[in-house]
Design goal:
alpha/beta, 10 strands, 16% strand, 34% helix, 9 helices, Rossmann fold, globular, binds fructose -6-phosphate, 261 residues
Length: 261
């Protein structure tokens, strides 16, 4: 696992967007797995800047959703499909025909989950999966005690996650759905490159447990330790509880530029 400490959220966004741009130059039809929430926004802004500057072509890029609320109509402004359309697809000029995600309104939720896992595999698998992290260490919506080999399935959000997400529902925690469909941890680990971005001190405990703690279902993001190409990009706040912070700084500073992350 590579840990990169960046000065702030903007530089973290630029670093991850550069990795996506390099991937797309090498593989123009790459499948990018994207997360929602606040953390990835600087990545999407920086990637859109690359596209508008003409130094990367996303006309063949494909986008895959990580998770979705159960029961919110697709057109609800806070369904993750709507959020991703607004924050990723439209700014990048990518059409919905290049987008794939689970159906959060399906009657047969389990069937929809299985269909999504199959669709990801049939699409050739995710090339780069961007993740945020919850204050409890969740990735996607795999809350603590999720199986480390889980597949896409329905999960119940913890009250903490619902409280954390109430800001997207005008502060009304009752409006935050209880259930979600999320790629499982096993599904996430099938991506060829997994990049976790965390910013702010509120994430420092979760980051330290994920990077330097034991691999444990209590901290779902710790499963990234089992991935052959996992990159954790953290700003100073999120890095503030890492014991090996100086080593991580030294390692990245000595890395040749051409290697990227
Ligand atoms: C959302 C997702 C979640 C978030 C996490 C952090 O698609 O996968 O795991 O990444 O809850 O959210 P923010 O970035 O808003 O702190």
């Amino acid at each position: 696992m590579e840990v990169v400490i960046v000065p702030d959220a903007k530089s973290g966004g630029e670093l991850v967007a550069e990795a996506m741009a390099r991937l797309l130059r090498r593989k123009p039809d790459a499948l990018l797995g994207v997360a929602t929430g606040s953390t990835p926004l600087p990545v999407y802004e920086a990637l859109a800047a690359h596209v508008h500057a003409g130094d990367v072509d996303v006309s063949r890029a494909r986008i895959a959703q990580l998770d979705e609320y159960v029961g919110l109509p697709a057109e609800h402004p806070e369904s993750y499909r709507s959020v991703l359309r607004r924050e990723v697809l439209e700014p990048l000029g990518i059409g919905m025909d290049a987008f794939m995600g689970p159906d959060g309104t399906a009657q047969d939720v389990q069937g929809a989950c299985e269909a999504y896992d199959r669709a990801l595999a049939e699409a050739g698998g995710v090339d780069l999966q961007l993740l945020g992290i919850g204050t409890d260490g969740h990735i996607g919506f795999n809350e603590p005690c999720s199986s480390l080999v889980s597949r896409t399935r329905i999960k119940t959000l913890t009250e903490q996650t619902r409280v954390d997400n109430a800001r997207f529902f005008d502060g009304d925690v009752d409006a935050v759905p209880h259930h979600v469909i999320t790629q499982g941890i096993g599904t996430i680990l099938e991506a060829r490159h997994v990049v976790l971005l965390a910013t702010g001190e509120a994430k420092a405990d979760a980051v330290a447990a994920s990077v330097e703690g034991a691999v444990a279902a209590m901290c779902p993001a710790s499963a990234l330790q089992l991935h052959p190409h996992a990159t954790v990009v953290v700003d100073e706040g999120a890095a503030s509880k890492l014991k090996l912070a100086d080593y991580f700084r030294h390692t990245f500073a000595s890395k040749p530029d051409w290697q990227g992350i």
